[in-house]
Amino acid sequence: MGRWKRGIGSIDAFQQRHPTTAFVVGVVKKFGDDRAGDLAALVAYYGFFSLFPILMVGVSVLGWVTQGNAGVRSAVTTSILRDFPVIGTQIRSNIHGLRGGGLGLVVAGGVALWSGIGVIRSFGSAMDTIWNVPIKRRPNAFSSAARAVVMLVVLGVVAVAGAIVAGLGVSSGPWRIAGFVVSLALNLLLFLLAFRILTVAHVRWSEVLPGALAGSLAWTLLATIGSWYVRTQLAGASEIYGTFGLVIGLLGWIYLGAQVALYAGEINVVRTMHLYPRSLLPPPLTDADRRALTRYAEEEERRSEEDVHVRFGDPSGVNRPGR
């Protein structure tokens, strides 16, 4: 046990001396302290149930707009589902437009809006959590729903923009590179707006830019690698697992995307609040440890008249303020 502790102590000392490794450790530790994996699972849960109603309404509207032009409708649908490279084909085969009058579309639109607001609100709550926004400052149901509607509109605009440039990503040579760059730019815009709009924390555009860059690059690479893997490795494979495979694949892909987004958000928080270097084996606590623990305590303020102050007891018996 002593040798193991000394080994971890050496690793800890090394990572604290080097800013790059200290920053990475700080992000990973903050992700764990926030239980962001659980938050990502909640986002994935709401995302799974919101996806099919939104796609169903979208395909219905698209069908009415592009009447008599099945090729355009198919191209737009395919481009949107390319963000689900492993299971996009199965989703496309299971999504159909609504038939009948406008009443059905209104009802389905209401369900899609309600479920879409649910997933955006869960992501916004996750953003407030990783920024350690005190509970007393978090938005009420009306305010969070309004923010969610704004982000749903943004998502729709980005989806349409992605459909317009859909052909670029499937061409060869320079056009494929151009398609990748355009997709990266659209994802960057989406991450920037999500990180800025979906939290009540007072953050500047420059403070959310690093995480938006990392998140958009990671998500674009994941989608590109997934598409390549399907084309080269799974092109001739049969859909053995059917509906079960669709459900597991879809949940897994949404959960992975939620984790990418939350890790990207943690990058912004750790950088802005300088929550590194963190200690792997406290005590002693680093100054960044104290700042992080103070933020967690202040996050629990639930009423306007409540004001939390934090002090730490050092091994010497001297109390130090948390910040």
Helix-strand layout with pairing:
Elements: H1 2-17, H2 19-33, H3 36-65, H4 70-81, H5 88-94, H6 102-130, H7 141-164, H8 166-170, H9 174-197, H10 205-233, H11 242-272, H12 287-298, E1 311-313, E2 319-321
Antiparallel strand pairs: 1-2
Helix pairs in contact: 1-2, 2-11, 3-6, 3-11, 4-7, 6-7, 6-11, 7-9, 9-10, 10-11
Shape: globular
How far is it from the N-terminal to the C-terminal residue, by CA? 34 Å
How many helices? The count is: 12
Radius of gyration: 23 Å
Give the neighbour order of strands across the main sheet.
Answer: 1-2
Count of individual domains: 1
Find the structural class using helix and strand composition: mainly alpha
β-strand amount: under 5%
**What is the helix fraction of residues, given as a range?**
over 70%
Low-confidence stretches: 233-238
What summary fits the major beta sheet? 2 strands, antiparallel
The number of strands is: 2
The helix/strand order is: HHHHHHHHHHHHEE
| Average predicted local confidence, pLDDT | 78
